[in-house]
Specification:
Elements lengths: L2 H14 L2 H28 L5 H12 L2 H11 L3 H24 L3 H20 L11 H21 L10 H35 L2 H8 L52 E6 L6 E4 H5 L4 E8 L10 E10 H7 L13 E6 L4 E5 H4 L6 E6 L2 E2 L9 E3 L13 E7 L22 E6 L9 E10 L5 E8 L5 E2 L1 E2 L9 E9 L2 E11 L21 E7 L1
Parallel strand pairs: 1-10
Antiparallel strand pairs: 1-2, 3-4, 4-7, 5-6, 5-10, 7-8, 7-9, 11-12, 12-16, 13-14, 13-17, 15-16, 17-18
Length: 535
Amino acid sequence: MTDNEQERPSRRRRRGRPTRPLLGALSGALAGFSALAVAELVAGGVRPQAGPVVAVGGAAIDRTPAAVKDWAIRNFGSDDKLVLQLGILAVLAVFAPALGIAALRFRRTGAAGVLLFGAVGAVAATGRPDSTGVTDALPSVTGAAVGAVLLYVLVGRLAPPRPAPGTPASDRGRDRRGFVIAASAAAVASAGAGLLGRSLSGSSGRDAVASRRNLVLPTPGSPARAVPKGAQLRIPGVSPFVTPNGDFYRVDTALVVPKVDATQWRLRIHGEGVTRPVTLTFDDLLRRELIERDITLTCVSNEVGGPYVGNARWIGIRLADLLAECGVRPPSKGGPADQLVARSVDGMTIGSPVEDVMDGRDALLALGMNGEPLPFQHGFPVRMIVPGLYGYVSACKWIEDIELTTFDNYDPYWVKRDWARKAPIKTQSRIDTPKPFARPKAGTVMVAGVAWAQHRGIDKVEIRVDDGPWQEARLAAEDSRDTWRQWSFAWRAAKGGHTLTVRATDRDGRVQTEKRARTIPDGASGWHSVVVTAE
């Protein structure tokens, strides 16, 4: 045998060595993919919220510090949930191949690692506030079991028992071919399971979609008055007076938007001071007198000048009337409960002051938004609206339970996370146009925007150019004290860079404070400014 013939086999072995770790990583990735796909399939039969990514994501949201949540909302907006889920998948994409490589030497340990991830998903699913019980663990447990078995089998193909002396190389090659066949079959089967799971999850809300599609809202007994002429300024760049449903901000913790069948929906009212507890159906609400009102909502996570504010025309029933029929009295009239805790179908709890709900303002159980049934992402079939309070203490979506209690006896979801118990909306204003860093032509430039102080109303808006004096802006017509108000100012812009600042004064005479405050614990404050360059 020549020297070249002796060297050739050893070179082949050296070239083959790097392939094993790569195939181990591929085995782990396939096992992780299969686990998620099977879990998705089982979740389609159980309920979409029980899927491991959704369950772990929800648990992560619950345990994330308020400051981090606020940062995520500020930077990602309504995409924060997508970013969270992608982050979870990215972590799995790192750990699954690592488990596959580890399984090359410790086969059982690698499979156990997959089972551990499944256990995390199962604990997260059963520990969620909206958990329906141990069945919520099935997607994670089943998916992990399939993933663990698959990893064990695939790694076994890569690391068969040491061949006996004289075993033909063709037999060892068959093991490698067996790996390719098994891996390919697993990939195809997993993709099919994932697609089927997606289909089942989509069909699980079919009845809810049908109930919304078939709903015709009755004509409200107390319709909203027509939007006053002049409430909507004809200035390009200003937010429309009525925010379209598709553009209305969404801030909540639901990774999967609940789809509730209105025909099966129930609302229970009970607790301290409720002398006549009641459980209502959706039809019960439809039979009551409906009122229609224009109301502006604001999220407490809205930074100064931020986008999380919108105005819509809501249709619903007066919540105060319903509570009074149940025997509820506000604290000012001797009622024992000072907090109304609203619970959502996804387990969210939101606490509102009973006094504010029953003081005569148009607090609603809303069924409609801008002339149509509530969109699912905005709370269909029923949500709460309380003018003048930030959403986290008033605007419970997908509501199914109202309990009367006290602030001393119960802390709702956000209060447990360092937000204030009571949060009336602060007087705020925003410059919509010109945008920051805009370069308008020198001369007359229209500066315009919106101001809001729900349930107090806006009395005045002022503009300051650089460090000059405050100058009063022109206010658009007012719809009601519960809606925002547009404003405009004709600015004679000289060439160069300038800072435009806005402030508002509410009907109580309170001037919007200059003092800057972050959103935590009860809403941001400060003046909104934009820097522009006139050319």
